[in-house]
Amino acid sequence: xxxxxxxxxxxxxxxxxxxxxxxxxxxxxxxxxxEQAIAEAKRCLECAKPSCMQGCPVNINIxxxxxxxxxxxxxxxxxLIKETxxxxxxxxxxxxxxxxxxxxxxxxxxxxxxxxxxxxxFAADWEAAQGSLTIPDLPPPTxxxxxVVGSGPAGLTVAADLVRxxxxxxxxxxxxxxxxxxxxxxxxxxxxxxxxxxEVEYVCGMGVKLVKDFVVGNAATVDELLExxxxxxxxxxxxxxxxxxxxxxxxxGVYSANEYxxxxxxxxxxxxxxxxxxxxxxxxxxxxGGGNVAMDSAxxxxxxxxxxxxxxxxxxxxxxxxxxxxxxHAEQEGIQFNLLTGPVAFHGENGRVKQVECLKMELGEPxxxxxxxxxxxxxxxxxxxxxxxxxxxxxxxxxxxxxTTSGLNLAKHGGVTVEESTMKTSKKGVFAxxxxxxxxxxxxxxxxxAKIASKxxxxxxxxxxx
Length: 466
Fold this sequence. Notes:
Layout: H1 18-21, H2 34-41, H3 62-70, H4 74-82, H5 88-94, H6 101-104, H7 116-129, E1 145-149, H8 153-164, E2 168-172, H9 181-184, H10 193-205, E3 209-211, H11 222-228, E4 231-234, E5 240-241, E6 254-256, H12 257-265, E7 284-288, H13 292-303, E8 308-312, H14 324-332, E9 336-338, E10 341-349, E11 352-366, E12 372-376, E13 382-385, E14 388-391, E15 395-396, H15 400-404, E16 430-432, H16 435-438, H17 443-463
Parallel strand pairs: 1-2, 1-4, 2-3, 4-16, 6-14, 7-8, 7-14, 8-9
Antiparallel strand pairs: 5-15, 10-11, 11-12, 11-13
Helix pairs in contact: 2-3, 2-7, 3-4, 4-7, 5-7, 8-17, 12-13
């Protein structure tokens, strides 16, 4: 048998030129054509012992998926993905594949890995282009009822899994639109909201009931839900923003990334006045942080008309937690990076922010995160002129449900304590997953925890054992 020819580099995915895209909210990458997708899938080495699946939190059968795409059987490919992943158009766009499936790809040891994420996106978009979504056959009803609190990645995943097990599932969403962080946190140019709605419709099409504008902890408590439902899953995310607690933080023009992005994404401020949502449109916008949320904020500022959009981050580029692709896109678009820079105060005039005072930093020994700790350089103070500041340094779960639920143990970050092998909480019948359990993390990690929870919930409903 002839040895398979190795193609070192991924097939390039076409995308909008930077000079054009900073003036619109259209998605940046265009996606693969059928020919490009087949060519990319054929780069797979068809390993006897494939390692790519080890990096996938939702256990997609990646080798068989790649084979089906390479053969041009796109319907079978997307059906295979949906056996374990109800949100492929989302994960194909925002999952950090470079650290997960692609990071485990055998090709990545010497060359560029197979573009699994791009192919997942392609398969999902191909299905949508056909005009219909394939709904799987469902087993007979079990008669068991589960309440899912939150319609983000974790909530949608656990709901899809449980309804495929024959259970009756109701999702309770606090906002007026389903999707959680997918609709309020991630910008249109990175994840179009029509795609999120399509994925939500797929989950609801399997029989999941969705109740919007329903705040659990207010409209009903978890204890009250347990009177009607056999189990409850908490997937409420992490919507409580962190601040820096430095002088001047209360000045006008200083925003949390949570508010800034929610106004733009969920409330469509970028389409003002068509949507009656005001948002600050600064000329010099400083975003503090180095994660994906910081990149989203800085890139949104450009699209809202900023002439200078500046990232301030206290470590170096190598330590930035944002995806390499997001940093690359930000650099292409002209975002300015002030690295090894730590903010110490905000200065203003007439109640509005005008400057960010910073210190230069240098890297010391690694801290608890495994990254080198930033250490201030004495007497290195300098100031950056600005008219808008966005703070994107992290977030915690909302305290509403813990405050209104008896017997629910909490972790230090304010999230719900869970047993990692089952996602059980300290309260009988209540499970949790995603950011409410981990603090701010990734979409795919939330989905992986939801899949663990769905199996444990099914077992609990069958046995009654806690």
